C-alpha cells in the first residue's frame, strides 16, 4: 500500500480511448443485428473447467443462505438465452478468475462474448477478424488458419496428437528444455500447454492475424469434437493471436445435453485428481440444451488485452481504471 | 521452514531450489487460452550468483530458505577466514570463507560495516557499502596543476584494490570509491 495507490492505473487518455473502443464494439454488432444482452455475474453454478478457479460468496437469497459463484465467463447464461430463442447475441461482461494475476491477467476483467446460431467455425473466424480490424482500425495483411498439430511439427518437430509413449517422452523433454521445468510426471496436455504458451505463442500474430485451429480432442472444453483432414479426432475450436498475444477463444458449441453432462462429470473427476473442489453441474444449462440450443458458434475475447494492443500498453493494469492491486 | 506456492512468489522471497538458497527476482503468469497455467520464475542462486529461469505449474510450491541479510563490522583476516561482528550490540561474531567473501575481499577495511547474507546461520555472501573511503598506498607522483584535464593512472589502495585515478592524486591521499563500478568518485 502506498500513498499513491488511490490513483487509477490507466491515464485519462487511455480511459477515453477505452470508451471509444467500447463504442466501436457496440457499433460493430449493431450494424450486424446482433442483440446486446446482460446476464448476471453471480450464479448458482460455477465453471467446472479443471484449469479455472471460480470465486464464490455467501448470499442470503429467497432460499436462505446460499453459495453463489462469480462467473468465469457469461457462457452458461448466454447459452440459455440461445436455447430460449434469442438469435445472435453479444455481451460485454465482467468475468472473474481466481489466481490469475500477471502482465496480461487481472482477476476481474472485461470479456466480449458473442454467439452466432447457424454459423460454421470458419464464418465466425472471419467475423472475429473483422471485429478486431474495426476496433483497432488496422487492416490485416493476412488472416492465417494454423492447425495446432502443424505448429508443433514446425516449431518442435513433434506430433502432439500422437498418443504414444514415445511422443510423451519427447514432449516432456522439449518442455524441460524450453522451460527449465521438472516435467517427468507431466501429462501430454501439460507439456503441450507449456510449449504452446512459451515457444509457439510468441511467434504468432506477427504481420497478420493467426488463428489456431484443430486443437487436441482432450482440450475440447465445451466445443464439439470432429475429425480433421487426416482423420484425427480434434476439438472444433480456435484461438486468435495478434502480436504474440492470445486474444480470443472460439468454439463450435456443444449442444448435446448428454455429452455436456458427461463433460461436467469428467471435469469434476479431473478436478478431484488435482485436489480442486468439485463444482456442481449447471442443471439449468443441461435443461436448456435438452430443450434445444441451435447449432452454432461462439467466441470470447479479452477486451482489456485488445485495449493493450490498440494503445501499445505493456501491462493490463494500465488498460483499466483500477486493477486488483489498486481496488 | 514454511513452503510457498507460486502465487506467493514475489521479488525478494528466498526459496530452496536444487538444494541451494535462491532469491526470487521475477514471477510471471503464463496461460494458454484454455488449459494449465504456469509461472515463469527468474531466481538468483545465492550460492553462485547465477540467475536461473524456471517454470512451475501454478499451484506448485517451494520450501522457504532460512536466509537473512545482516549488517556486520569487518574485524580481521586470520589468513584463512574473514571475521565480522554484528553491530546490534550483541558482539556476536561470524567467520566468512573465501567463497562467501569473493570479490568483496578487495574492499574489506576494518571497522567498515558490510552486509552479510546468512543461510542457516552461515555466511554465504558479503556485500560492500556502495561507497567506501580508502587510502592510496601506491601511485605515480601527482602532476601539479592538472586538476581539470582528463587522463588517469593506476593506483593501489590500502585494501589491495587497483583503481584508475586522476593524474593529480598523490600517495597517502584518501579517496571515495564506488564499489559497484570500482571507479574513483572524489577525494574524501
UniProtKB/TrEMBL annotation, chain A:
The keyword Protein biosynthesis is annotated on this UniProt entry: yes
Assembly behavior: Homodimer.
Listed EC numbers: 6.3.1.-
One Gene Ontology term of the molecular function aspect: ATP binding
A Gene Ontology biological process term: lysyl-tRNA aminoacylation
UniProt keyword terms in alphabetical order: ATP-binding, Elongation factor, Ligase, Nucleotide-binding, Protein biosynthesis
GO cellular component, one term: cytosol
Lineage of the species this protein comes from: Bacteria, Pseudomonadati, Pseudomonadota, Gammaproteobacteria, Oceanospirillales
Annotated organism of origin: Kushneria phyllosphaerae
Pfam families linked to this entry: tRNA-synt_2 (PF00152)
Signal peptide: none
Name of the featured protein: Elongation factor P--(R)-beta-lysine ligase
InterPro entries: Aa-tRNA-synt_II, aa-tRNA-synth_II, aa-tRNA-synth_II/BPL/LPL, EpmA, Lys-tRNA-synth_II_C
Superkingdom of this protein's organism: Bacteria
Reaction(s) the record says it catalyses: D-beta-lysine + L-lysyl-[protein] + ATP = N(6)-((3R)-3,6-diaminohexanoyl)-L-lysyl-[protein] + AMP + diphosphate + H(+)
Domain (Aminoacyl-transfer RNA synthetases class-II family profile) ranges: 21-317
UniProt entry tagged with the keyword Nucleotide-binding: yes
PANTHER family in UniProt: ELONGATION FACTOR P--(R)-BETA-LYSINE LIGASE, LYSYL-TRNA SYNTHETASE
Top-level class of the enzyme under EC nomenclature: ligase
UniProtKB/TrEMBL annotation, chain B:
Annotated ranges, domain Translation elongation factor P/YeiP central: 69-124
Annotated GO biological process: peptide biosynthetic process
Gene Ontology MF terms: translation elongation factor activity
SUPFAM superfamilies: Nucleic acid-binding proteins (SSF50249), Translation proteins SH3-like domain (SSF50104)
Sites bearing N6-(3,6-diaminohexanoyl)-5-hydroxylysine, chain numbering: 34
Family the entry assigns: Belongs to the elongation factor P family.
Listed name of the protein: Elongation factor P
The gene coding this protein: efp
